[in-house]
Amino acid sequence: MENEKLILTEEWDKTFPKSDKVNHRKITFHNRYGITLAADLYEPKNAEDKLPSVVVCGPFGAVKEQSSGLYAQTLAERGFLTIAFDPSFTGESGGQPRYVASPDINTEDFSAAVDFLSVQDNVDPERIGILGICGWGGMALNAAANDTRIKATVASTMYDMTRVNARGYFDAMDADARYEQRKALNAQRIEDYKNGSYQLGGGVVDSLPEDAPFYVKDYYDYYKTERGYHKRSLNSNGGWNTTSALSFMNMPILAYSDEIRNAVLVIHGEKAHSRYFSEDAFKKLKGDNKELLIIPGAVHTDLYDCMDVIPFDKLESFFLENLK
């Protein structure tokens, strides 16, 4: 298996400042579909021996220069070797066509990162955890159900992307509405094939309507402002390929989450529009090593980058306890 040659940015182009407490470098690794993934690796300075490690990805439609990199760098400051990666087909990662999302391939991306970490000289392969943000929180739970090497999993401000695509926000979509959406998406497949290119679904709106729902305002405040905008982020720009929704409508990712035996921590904001995803996912988990943490007063994107809201002390203690 050969890694695709990727062009990686050398400059520090993150939405957060660089820490002087960690070493940082770009890496690549491949998944079992042959797609080469780009990632940022963070490790504590002056670290000795083999380290516990954490793989970070998300939010859905973001890139590693945004929230996932912030989580990864901060956990590295606390003693973990971490990587934040761009999912297949997005950011600096490889894969054609661009801007495709897949419940299978994107779950596999987590396991591919575990493959990479498991053969690093400074990583303990028995002490690997994962952390998924937003839509990658659901992917993280799906990966944990399938990959027994993952010893601890965190889902932060989680979305179940298969549920929201199949049922709409707050489960408002019924079977008839779902059928009509399938018709429209399959018609778009024909147009895409004729055109030789894929229609983009659009990222977060460029101009915020006064009557926009709060969750749209919440996303706008992150992706469309200096706070979180990034030129490679799909949500900050043109969005995913429209037809990506088809596979998510048809393939629920949490079917076997009740079989996760290793530790899981689910974190969500009290006032987040998406809170029901985490609460319902948590209800399905089994065992006394599962925990739900609701952050008082927090909305969805507070857990993207608000350092006074993200419970890093809890994340550190959870990973230390379960990666030993």
Quick overview of this protein structure:
This protein has helices spanning 67-77, 103-118, 135-146, 161-167, 175-195, 214-223, 245-250, 275-284, 302-305, 312-322, and strands spanning 22-30, 36-44, 51-57, 81-85, 123-133, 152-156, 263-269, 290-295. With 324 residues, it is an alpha/beta fold. The two termini are 32 Å apart.
The overall pLDDT, averaged over residues, is 97
Strand content: 15-25%
- In order across it, which strands form the biggest sheet? 1-2-4-3-5-6-7-8
For this structure, what is the CATH homologous superfamily of the domain at 22-160 and 253-322? Alpha/Beta hydrolase fold, catalytic domain
**CATH class bucket of the domain at 22-160 and 253-322:** Alpha Beta
What percent of residues adopt helix (DSSP H or I)?
A: 25-40%
Low-confidence stretches: none
Overall structural class, as computed from helix and strand content, comes to alpha/beta
State the end-to-end CA separation: 32 Å
Largest sheet: 8 strands, mixed
Number of strands: 8
- Give the helix tally: 10
- Reported by name, the CATH topology of the domain at 22-160 and 253-322 is Rossmann fold
Any guess at the CATH architecture of the domain at 22-160 and 253-322?
3-Layer(aba) Sandwich
Order of helices and strands: EEEHEHEHEHHHHEHEHH
- What Rg, in angstroms, do the CA atoms define? 19 Å
Apparent shape? globular
